[in-house]
Design a protein that fits this description.
CATH topology: Nucleotidyltransferase, domain 5
Strand order of the largest sheet: 3-2-1-4-5
Largest sheet: 5 strands, mixed
Radius of gyration: 15 Å
Distance between the termini: 16 Å
Number of helices: 5
Shape: globular
Order of helices and strands: EEEHEHEHHH
CATH architecture: 2-Layer Sandwich
Strand content: 15-25%
Number of domains: 1
Structural class: alpha/beta
C-alpha cells in the first residue's frame, strides 16, 4: 500500500509518500513542504496547495491519503485558516478518488513513537529510524507528514491482522 501523508499548515503544508512493501518494510518515496507566502491572498495559497497536492497524487499514485485531524487552537482565526487548508487537501484527494483517513495528533505520535505526548524532535528521530533515512527529513512539516503516513500504514496493517 502507498499512502500520501499530509500535514496541513497555513505557511507550509508538509507531504510525504510512504509505501509498505509486501514484506512489511516501510519505504519513503517522496517528502517535502509546500511553502506558502503569508502576503499572498488566502485563495491563492489554497490554490497552490490544491495544485501541488494534485501533482503529487498524479505522479506518485497513492492508494490512500492520511491527514492530521483538527486540533483545538486558542486562536480561532488560525484554526479557521488551517481548516480551509485541510478542506482543500481532502477535496484534492476526493477528486482523485482516494479515501481519506484522519488521525489525531496523539494517535500519530503513539503509532510512531509509542508515546502520545512525544516532542517534535522525538517524532523526527523515529521517522528517520523507521525509514532508515540518513538525516532527519526537512522541513519539519515533512517529518510530520511522514509520521502521518506511517501511522496510517500501521493502523491499516493492524486492521488487516485483526480480520477487519
Amino acid at each position: 500500500m502507498r499512502v500520501l501523508g499530509v500535514d496541513c499548515g497555513t505557511e507550509c503544508t508538509g507531504y510525504a509518500v510512504v509505501e509498505q512493501t509486501h514484506d512489511g518494510e516501510l519505504v519513503s518515496r517522496s517528502w517535502g513542504g509546500i511553502r506558502l507566502r503569508p502576503q499572498e491572498p488566502l485563495p491563492n495559497r489554497l490554490l497552490t496547495v490544491h495544485e501541488k497536492l494534485a501533482e503529487i497524487i498524479s505522479f506518485h499514485q497513492p492508494d490512500e491519503v492520511a491527514i492530521e485531524d483538527v486540533f483545538y487552537s486558542i486562536n480561532a482565526k488560525s484554526a479557521l485558516k488551517l481548516g480551509q487548508v485541510r478542506g482543500v487537501a481532502m477535496l484534492t484527494a476526493a477528486q482523485a478518488g482516494l479515501p481519506v483517513a484522519e488521525y489525531a495528533p496523539l494517535t500519530i505520535k503513539s503509532a510512531v513513537v509509542g508515546y502520545g505526548r512525544a516532542e517534535k524532535s522525538q517524532v523526527q528521530e523515529m521517522v528517520t529510524r523507521l525509514l532508515r533515512l540518513t538525516a532527519p527529513p526537512e522541513p519539519a512539516d515533512a517529518a510530520d507528514a511522514l509520521a502521518i503516513a506511517i501511522c496510517h500504514l500501521h493502523t491499516a496493517a493492524t486492521i488487516v491482522r485483526q480480520g477487519g
